[in-house]
């Protein structure tokens, strides 16, 4: 038995693979960190909603659960993966729009402070949103230079002028796993708020947002939460920050939407961060994945994630000696993907995809292997790394 | 044969009723202007996408059509219902978020102008968004008082300080149908831009956005486009206005998203109005309805809509003499719903819903009857008005 086969054999979560739809021409799917697979149950879940809810209940559905669905699923997410008590998480919009709303809200909560802190390696949307807001509000961006974002490096740039620090929990390219509680404490010591982007960690790296004193967080649901292409994002706003006001004042974030009255008054609680009508259908697929993660337990998911990335690194060391590991070797500093750099990688990508080996490419020269613990097998990792090595040689 | 039965019998679009899912306990669905019925094909369309696209193609789907889907469907919508040439319409976000983005963009395009014009009867989200932006930018809101919004009344408030006029094509409560070309010309004569909210007209009232010189428009897709609860909205930005910049700078609105580079540069064309990842699954149900409208022809849809509202008014005059018609009697000034006011209406709503008669209630005392021409029969209208009359007596 190969090492991969014995690892799969011993995997306590191996039975979950059967919960995910398989693709006939894909032998190794290593891009679950860009788009998770659908569950076998997802198509039926959507069809059942159309027939039994939308079609059968029609407009009545809004008062029979749909209107609360963003908070219902938000609370599920908070319990299963975020370490967030109910009433602090909502589903909707896109990560970009939620970033905009929460950054704007946070700035207003720190009047007189003139600086926003972000790192050069952060995901483009995070940087672009902050650049736009800084320009419109006359604020200064303080950039943390490229590289792993540690508490010490954050401490060098935050100060009495810092309104808000915006960082990613897991870096989209390197997979570096930031010290959320440590960095949050550093920012708070300077009187700043912190907004964590959890896009690349939610569902695979446990967080304790409440216990860590996180102020704000956003993330997407189409990666490790398997919500489907472009599924709505989520926002976490700690109860202590729920007096903030966001700038996109819509009727469903108002205190009394169905009064249709004059003058916007924000709702109490997390609902004030909602703007338009909640994207009900788009929210449904993630529910199945939240159920699976809860059944497996987020700590077991994390353990499998670590084992998968360890195995990928071991294989890369052995089979791809000319590639450079652009991700941390220490599991405690790593999310659920690794990136390998090699100047030959760009050229081999089309051939890999044609073979049904599906990693991701990130400029200028990185192959990113994203492992989604409940759906990715050790055998897929082995197939993938061997195929990359074969293509390169 | 009753009048309703003979009208249904002679209805050239009657065959379309069979395209829509029916609800076992609903005998008269008169709220298609809040949430359209699903098509019979919708559940299968979603399930097929999950199996054949998302599940089978996985991340490869983004380069096989998903990334362009917002513009593909936007162009379909433009052709079928908006009178918009390709490259000016995109699907995404919510109406509220798109309003925010386009209002902000328009203000920046009219520097030095200090006023925004809107009417008191406009839908809450439109008013709330403008109130928020006016406060943040130090602008003045010029209110058109409650009542039908005519070109003459707009002319009274626009002037050299007007940056933007924001109005609804069809009023959400009264159903009043505004003179888009006339009002647009009035605004333009004052040097202002115009943003039309098409939520209550798109798919039932033909528009000629290009020919009318409209600058900007938004609308939702869950009413007469049958996109499902919370389906994404659309934005139209005339080619002449595509140098505008919107404030929510996300990676998918940037010129080169997959370069992941430093510094946001907006994409050329309509794509610069995109922020985050397009809501692919949420966009799918409306495709079926766009196909039906195209097959029927938007002018035929409008003709049926007029016949349905005429019939509803005739019945109300006869059966509900104590109710007040809060909608225009002239078909040319009316969208696809009518509102009747009566102080007894609030009390009878629960009973109507229990009988499977589903109109909508709008504060303080209005019952709104929304007719969706391809799915609503004259018999449903008769059943609905007779049930209201019976409940009231």
Oligomer: homodimer
State the shape of chain A: globular
CATH superfamily of the largest domain in chain A: Type I PLP-dependent aspartate aminotransferase-like (Major domain)
Counting DSSP E segments of at least 2 residues, the number of strands of chain A comes to: 13
Instruction: Output the radius of gyration of chain A.
Output: 21 Å
- Derived from helix and strand composition plus strand pairing, the structural class of chain A reads alpha/beta
Largest sheet of chain A: 7 strands, mixed
Largest interface (CB within 8 Å) is between: A-B, 86 and 86 residues
Number of helices of chain A: 13
Concise description?
2 copies of one chain form a homodimer. Chain A is α/β, with parallel strands linked by helices.
Present the secondary structure layout:
The structure is a homodimer of 393-residue chains.
Chain A: H1 3-10, E1 28-29, H2 42-57, H3 69-82, E2 89-92, H4 95-108, E3 115-119, H5 124-137, E4 140-144, H6 151-157, E5 162-168, H7 180-189, E6 193-197, H8 209-212, E7 216-219, E8 233-237, H9 280-283, H10 285-296, H11 298-319, E9 324-325, E10 337-341, H12 345-354, E11 357-358, E12 360-362, E13 366-370, H13 378-392
Parallel strand pairs in A: 1-11, 3-4, 3-5, 5-6, 6-7
Antiparallel strand pairs in A: 2-8, 7-8, 9-10, 10-13, 12-13
Could you explain the architecture of this structure?
Two copies of one chain form a homodimer. The first copy, chain A, has two domains: 3-30 and 297-392, Alpha-Beta Complex (Aspartate Aminotransferase, domain 1), CATH 3.90.1150; 44-293, 3-Layer(aba) Sandwich (Aspartate Aminotransferase, domain 2). Helices cover 38% and strands 14% of the residues of chain A. Chain A has helices spanning 3-10, 42-57, 69-82, 95-108, 124-137, 151-157, 180-189, 209-212, 280-283, 285-296, 298-319, 345-354, 378-392; strands at residues 28-29, 89-92, 115-119, 140-144, 162-168, 193-197, 216-219, 233-237, 324-325, 337-341, 357-358, 360-362, 366-370. In chain A, strands 2-8-7-6-5-3-4 form a seven-stranded mixed beta sheet, with helices on both faces. A four-stranded antiparallel beta sheet of chain A has the order 9-10-13-12, covered by helices on one side. Chain A has a two-stranded parallel sheet with strand order 1-11. In chain A, helix 3 runs parallel beside helix 10 (285-296) and helix 6 (151-157) packs parallel to helix 7 (180-189). Chain A is globular, with a radius of gyration of 21 Å. At the A-B interface, helix 2, helix 4, helix 5 and helix 9 of A face helix 2, helix 4, helix 5 and helix 9 of B.
């Amino acid at each position: 038995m190969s090492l991969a086969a014995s690892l799969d054999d011993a995997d306590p979560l191996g039975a979950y693979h059967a919960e995910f739809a398989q693709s006939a021409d894909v032998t190794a799917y290593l891009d679950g960190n860009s788009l998770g697979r659908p569950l076998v149950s997802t198509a039926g879940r959507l069809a059942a909603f159309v027939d039994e809810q939308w079609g059968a209940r029609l407009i009545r559905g809004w008062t029979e659960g749909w209107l609360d669905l963003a908070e219902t699923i938000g609370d599920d997410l908070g319990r299963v993966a975020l370490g967030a008590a109910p009433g602090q998480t909502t589903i909707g919009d896109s990560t970009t729009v939620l970033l905009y709303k929460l950054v704007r809200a946070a700035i207003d909560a720190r009047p007189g402070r003139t600086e926003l802190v972000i790192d050069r390696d952060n995901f483009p949307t995070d940087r672009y949103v902050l650049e736009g807001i800084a320009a419109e509000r006359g604020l200064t961006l303080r950039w943390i230079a490229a590289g792993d974002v540690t508490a010490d490096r954050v401490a060098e740039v935050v100060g009495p002028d810092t309104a808000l620090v915006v960082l990613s929990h897991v870096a989209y390219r390197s997979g570096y796993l930031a010290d959320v509680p440590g960095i949050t404490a550093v920012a708070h010591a300077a009187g700043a708020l912190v907004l964590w982007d959890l896009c690349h960690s939610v569902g695979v790296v446990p967080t304790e947002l409440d216990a860590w004193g996180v102020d704000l967080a956003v993330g997407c649901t189409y990666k490790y939460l398997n919500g489907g292409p472009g599924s709505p994002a989520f926002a976490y706003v700690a109860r202590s920050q729920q007096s903030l006001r966001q700038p996109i004042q819509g009727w469903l974030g108002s205190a009394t939407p169905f009064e249709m009255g004059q003058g916007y008054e924000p709702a109490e609680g997390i609902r004030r961060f909602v703007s338009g009508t909640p994207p009900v259908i788009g929210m449904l697929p993630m529910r199945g994945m939240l159920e699976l993660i809860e059944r497996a337990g987020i700590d077991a998911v994390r353990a499998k994630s670590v084992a998968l990335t360890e195995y990928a690194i071991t294989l890369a060391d052995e089979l791809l000696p000319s590639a450079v590991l652009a991700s941390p070797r220490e599991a405690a500093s790593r999310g659920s993907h690794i990136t390998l750099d090699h100047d030959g990688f760009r050229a081999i990508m089309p051939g890999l995809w044609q073979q049904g080996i599906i990693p991701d490419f990130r400029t200028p020269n990185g192959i990113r292997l994203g492992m989604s613990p409940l759906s990715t097998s050790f055998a897929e990792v082995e197939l993938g790394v061997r195929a990359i090595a074969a293509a390169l040689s």
